[in-house]
Amino acid sequence: MTDALTPSKNTAAPQATAPLPLTDAVLEALAITKRGVDELLIESEFAQKLARSEKTGQPLRIKLGLDPTAPDLHLGHTVVLNKLRQLQDLGHQVIFLIGDFTSMIGDPSGRNVTRPPLTREQIEENATTYFRQASLVLDASRTEIRYNSEWSDPLGARGMIELASRYTVARMMERDDFTRRFKNGTPISVHEFLYPLMQGYDSVALKSDLELGGTDQKFNLLVGRELQKDYGQEPQCILTMPLLEGLDGIEKMSKSKNNYIGITEPANTMFAKLMSISDTMMWRYFDLLSFRSIAELAQLKAEVEGGKNPRDAKVALAQEIVTRFHSAAAAEQALADFVNRSKGGIPDDVPEVALSGAPLSIAHLLKQAGLCASTSEAMRMVDQGGVRIDGEVVSDKALKIEAGSFVLQVGKRKFARVTFSA
């Protein structure tokens, strides 16, 4: 280990210093930092860090660690990235930490079972796309990219044992997921205790002033704060962001729950998905995803409460998000496409499918075209009036489709331009 990571032998209480005054600029930066957050610990400490940064001109070191467990990001992931970008725009040093070492342990946070660790090949494959996608939110030119294998690999067995001696089993068992699994008789592997320790050690190595994470990461972030004290560093503050609900408005956004909006999805798809959220949920999406100022959002909400159609506000949100991940031109085109669809029109970007076997029942054709997972689902969609051919509603479940070219539609967002032959 380097000298920077050597434990401090000075256990004397630090000398108290007079608090720095909080200028208007500091108070504004604090308000921006707190917008949409779940918790900021300790707020008074972070205010002093901001004040010291303003006085000395030295930017704060702000850390976000992500394990490359999957190659694609959705809007739920960007909630924390958005906050990181706001802090970056305030002039602070953002550190995008890729947990290539901790990924091999597997983060047990919020899980009821042991998560299988990733192989080195899986980690490297996923990590190649992470920063490219994160750069759709962050300013890549002002972002420091680090990998925690830089300091974790050199620890070795002796260093790992020394680090493990700094935390008791009783303190580890304060974690809700560990406690729940222990009570339920669900196995907890010893190596899982290493995860929060290694994440905390990252903060020591990077001399972090502030670490960000989701609400499910609070325990791990606090471990970093405590380890910094042990190593004689000023402890980091902690900022946790809420978990964004998905399109259903209930469960957190997740690909496995199919309620997500991927940041690399086509512009038209992204726009339509955003327009599908409820008028109530729209404001939470504004708070957690929009870069509009607090004053702008307050004005927009007042206009809606005063009678403005909430659909107009939702359009503004959808255009902002699509512009961020695609372009302003793509956002305008997506709006036109959405309006066209809402009038029963056919979008421009319909996938083309060539099928054979005519004549064929409508249910089997929908399944073969990939618009329904099964013929039973297709029959239900016909019953519900959700199936159209060239814009005309299909009501006969026994309908046989002859050879030809036509556009199939299921629901509001599923289309296929079919060339059907015998």
For this structure, what is the CATH homologous superfamily of the largest domain? HUPs
Distance between the ends: 71 Å
Shape label: globular
Give the ordered list of helices and strands: HEHEHEHEHHHHHEHEHHHHHEEHHEEEEE
How would you explain this protein's 3D organization?
- With 422 residues, this protein is α/β, with parallel strands linked by helices.
- It has 3 domains: 3-7 and 19-241, 3-Layer(aba) Sandwich (Rossmann fold), CATH 3.40.50.620; 267-342, Tyrosyl-Transfer RNA Synthetase (Orthogonal Bundle); 352-421, RNA-binding S4 domain (Structural Genomics Hypothetical 15.5 Kd Protein In mrcA-pckA Intergenic Region, Chain A, Roll), CATH 3.10.290.
- It is 44% helix and 14% strand.
- The chain is built from 17 helices and 13 strands.
- The strands form 3 sheets. It has a 6-stranded mixed β-sheet, with helices on both faces. It has a 5-stranded mixed β-sheet with strand order 7-13-12-9-10.
- A hairpin with a 2-residue loop joins strand 9 and strand 10 (392-393).
- Helix 16 (362-368) crosses helix 17.
- The longest helix has 16 residues, at 310-325.
- It is globular.
- The relative contact order is 0.10.
- Residues 8-14 and 108-114 have low confidence and may be disordered.
- Its EC number is 6.1.1.1.
- A motif ('HIGH' region) lies at residues 68-77.
